[in-house]
Amino acid sequence: MVDKKSSTKTFDHPEQYKTEKESLFDKYESEQNVDPIPMEDLNEKMQDEKDKHKSKDTSSSEKKYKNE
Q: Residue 63 phi/psi, 5° resolution?
């Protein structure tokens, strides 16, 4: 088993942005089998539902990975 404190993880944050901090999913054993819902994706989907004609004008993936 890998020591989580010593290994640096990126994109382990529920919001899927790079971080060096330990998330709640890493801190508690009961949360390790929980799949987080990325809030940016959820907000994007909710906006698409409101305005169905412009649903493909935006993409959370493009925003997330545009600087890499």
A: -65, -40
Of 47, 50, 52, 49, residue with least CA distance to 60: 47
- The count of other CB atoms within 10 Å of the CB of residue 14 is 14
Q: Which token pair is 46?
A: 């909710």
Give CA separation, 54 vs 39, 44, 61, 68, in Å: 20, 11, 16, 26
Mean pLDDT for back-to-back runs of 10 residues, the chain (68 residues): 46 59 71 70 81 65 62
CB 16 within 8 A of CB 9: no
